[in-house]
Amino acid sequence: MPVDLENARKAKALLDQAIQALGGQAYLNVRDMQMAGRTYSFHHGRPTSNGIQFWRFIQYPDKDRIELTKERDVAQVYNGDKGYEITFKGARPIEEKDLADYLRRRRFSLETMLRTWVNSPGVALFYEGNAIAAEHPALQVTLINSKNESVTLYLDADTHLPIKKTFIWRDPVDKQRNLEEEIYDNYRPVQGIMTPYDVARYFNGDMSNQRFLNSAAYNQGLDAAMFDPNSGYNPNKQPGKK
Questions:
Q1: What is the pTM of this model?
Q2: Considering its fold, how many domains does the chain have in total?
């Protein structure tokens, strides 16, 4: 139907504008990213700590290392569909539920939406009009893939930068529907790429995590040993880039 085609065309145009707002080709060409800051976890919307310093290194599409504490002596490493926690005792597999949660977030990440889904055959795009997201006027676009998984993005009505992302999934055990949301704020340009320095995550309406960056960098070339749980990589002895 022509109306559906027109709607899909409008959705695609808005997603293209979002990619341009984020940095266009520079954003699409990101191979790796590193960041440092402070992360806060919440349980039922209440903070569970005063925040932990973190350093994070991502090599797209599927490698990730998160170092925690001031000493950087606890790390989580994700490589493909496997995850490990590394402490002074060595590496051990991350608990299955925590790994499933991480892999789901990666599958529905903003980067995956804008760099993979948007051009994938079989992904349907829907423009859903004006909305309010994180107290900002927004334009709402939904992407649905061939497995009937859907993600909704809210783009700032003025800048077209993504300000919110939501997706729903059904728990395989209790069959309940769960709503996950991410809010992006405090964008700053880093190497020509607009980078949200504040990210908040919500689970079924309650805040579950908040992250504040104090630095970010792209395409620095990361040491492969960082993503090998058994490499003995020590962030305090190596510069973290080749």
A1: 0.92
A2: 1
